[in-house]
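FAQ: What does a ligand-bound record look like?

Like this one, built around adenosine-5'-diphosphate:
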Amino acid sequence: MGSYLLDKMPENKALRAFTESAPVGIFSTDCNGKTLYVNPCWCKLSGLSFDDAMGDGWMKAVHPDDLPWLKAGWEESVAVRQTSSTEYRFLRSDGSVVWVMGNSTPQFNASGDLTGYIGTITDITEKKKMLKDLLAAKEKAEESDRLKTSFLNNISHEIRTPLNAITGFCAFLSDPDLSHEKRESFTKIIIESSDQLLFIITDIINIAAIESGHEKVCEKEFNLNAMIKMVTGRFASRAREQYNLLRHQTFLPDEEAEIFTDRTKLVQILSNLLNNAVKFTHKGKIDLGYCLKDGNLEFYVKDTGIGIPDNLKNEIFHIFRQVESSDNRNFGGSGLGLSISKAYVEMLGGRIWVDSEPGRGAAFYFTIPYKKHEPGT
Ligand code: ADP
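The answer part, i.e. the structure of the complex:
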C-alpha cells in the first residue's frame, strides 16, 4: 500500500489510529486523483472493500445519476489542483442509498510540488431526509394556507349573497302596493336564500365539531326508505329549476327497511351529495338509491353533470378542496361538503369514493354497515 498518507503512518501510530477509527470517511489519492487509501469508515459508507476502491474503483459505488457530473467535476478539480466540496450519493450493492458530503484538498511537499489529494466523506443521509421532510411540510403548510385564504374568500361570498338577498327582498316586501305575484316570488327568494344560508352555516358548524373531535355518533332506529324519499323531496324543486330529472330507488321493501344508525349524519351525507349533484348538473339526470352488498348498505348518488378530472378524484374529499380555483368560479360552494361527508361515513364505519368521467357525470358511492336493530335487542 504505497499511499502518500500511509507512507507517513508507520512513524505516526496516533495518526493511523485516528484515521482507522475516524467516524468520517477518509481517502487519499496520487497527484492524478487515483485513489491510494481509504479508511474503514469510507468502506462502510460506500459498501466497497479497500481493494475495490483503489484507482478509479471508488466510482463503482457512486449512484449512476451522480457519476457523470461527479467524475467530470473531480477531473476538473485535479486538473486545476484545487479544493473541492460536493454532495453526492453512493448506491450500495444491497440497494441502499447513502448521501455524502465529499471534501478534498491538494497536498504539496516542502518544495511546493503536488503530492496528491486527501479528503473526507461525511454521511449526510439523515440531514438530506430531514431537509426533504421539512420541504414537504413547508409545501403542505403553504398549500393549506392558500386553501384557507381561498376558503375565506369563498365563504364570505357564499354568506353575503343569500344574506343580501334576504335583507333586500325583505325591504321590498314592506311595500304595501306590491302585487300578489311579486310578493310570492320575493317570499320564495327569501326562503331559498335562508335555506342556502342555513346549509352553509350548518357545514361550518359541522366541520368545526369534526375538527375539534367533538362530533359524536348518535344511533337510533328509523325507516331508511322514508328517509330517502324525504331527502329526495327536499331537492325536487331545485332539481326542476336546473331542468334535471331527479329519481330515487329503494332496495329493501318498506317493511324491511328499518335500520339502526345515525339518521342525522346519513341525511347530511346524502344531502351534501345531492346538493353537489344538482349544482353541477344542468338538463341531466340525478339518481339516488342504495343496495345491500356483503352485509353493508351501499348508497349511490349519480349525476350526468360536468364530472371530475381524474387527478382530483381523491383530492376533493379534502377540506377546502374544489376543482374550480377561487379566481375562476361558476358554481360557488365552500369546499366543506365532501370532507364532512367523508368524516361522517368513516364515523359510521364505512367508506366513500367517486367514479367519474369528466364531462359525462359523477357517481358517488358510500357504504355503512347494515344494522337492523340496536345491538343486543
Ligand atoms: P363545494 O361543493 O361546496 O365546493 P364539496 O366539498 O361538496 O364543496 O365539493 C368539493 C368539490 O368537488 C366541488 O367544489 C367540485 O369541484 C367537486 N364536486 C363535488 N361533487 C361533484 C359533482 N357531483 N360533480 C362535479 N364535481 C363535483
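Follow-up question: can I read anything off the structure? Yes, for example: The radius of gyration is 35 Å.
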